[in-house]
Amino acid sequence: MKKGRQQTTNMKHVLDCILAVSLLALVVLTSGCATVGGQVREPYTYSSETYNASGVSPATDQEVLDFLAQDTTDENHWIEGVYECGHFAADLWWNAYTQGLEACMVWVTYWEQGTEQDHWIVKLRIEDETQNYWLWVEPSSDEVVEEGDYTIQDTFCGEEALNLCKTWWEEGLG
């Protein structure tokens, strides 16, 4: 009889542990404290003291493609209410800025399954001897997208983009 009671006690202990771990995971995810993957950006990262627009310039298409290949923003995880499309755009924009690349965050709408959707795209300036254009990039995947697939609502470049980034990280995307 003692062995059966011990097995029941052990099973109850295992179930209690599983329940405790599950509850802890739920609290972490819903509190906004979850790690988002490739990088964790703190609000103070987007600092006016470190922003200097004179260090930014257009790049060649190869420089932009090399930047996208090494940037880890697309490795982050979408967490609704915590890390969403605007956060991806903010991080990609900031990373481009720190590499000296001219970029803007673009608030757009597009149609998906008959419903208009809001979204954020990052555009990077390409300029060399033969070309001069903006390369549009989906920040969560590094996919190059077509400008014509979207309706532009607003564009944020330079200090406006910096202020938007700081706002998102200080207040969240409410």
3D structure, described in words:
With 174 residues, the chain is of the alpha+beta class. It has two domains: 1-31; 39-171, Beta Polymerase, domain 2 (2-Layer Sandwich), CATH 3.30.460. It contains four helices and five strands, in the order αααβββββα. Strands 4-3-2-1-5 form a five-stranded antiparallel sheet. Strand 2 and strand 3 form a beta hairpin. It is globular, with a radius of gyration of 22 Å. The termini are far apart. The model is unreliable at 14-40 (pLDDT under 50).
Q: Rounded to an integer, what's the Rg over CA atoms?
A: 22 Å
Order of helices and strands: HHHEEEEEH
Please, how many helices?
4
CATH-defined fold name of the largest domain: Beta Polymerase, domain 2
**What is the CATH class of the largest domain?**
Alpha Beta
How many DSSP-defined strands? 5
Describe the largest sheet: 5 strands, antiparallel
* Average pLDDT score: 77
Low-confidence stretches: 14-40
- Assign a percent range to the helix content: 25-40%
Strand order of the largest sheet: 4-3-2-1-5
**What is the end-to-end distance?**
57 Å
CATH architectural type of the largest domain: 2-Layer Sandwich
The SS-based structural class is alpha+beta
**Proportion of β residues?**
15-25%
Shape: globular
Count of discrete domains = 2
Sum up the structure in keywords.
174 residues, alpha+beta, Beta Polymerase, domain 2, five-stranded antiparallel β-sheet, 39% helix, 23% strand, globular
Question: Summarize this, please?
Answer:
The chain folds into two domains: 1-31; 39-171, 2-Layer Sandwich (Beta Polymerase, domain 2), CATH 3.30.460.
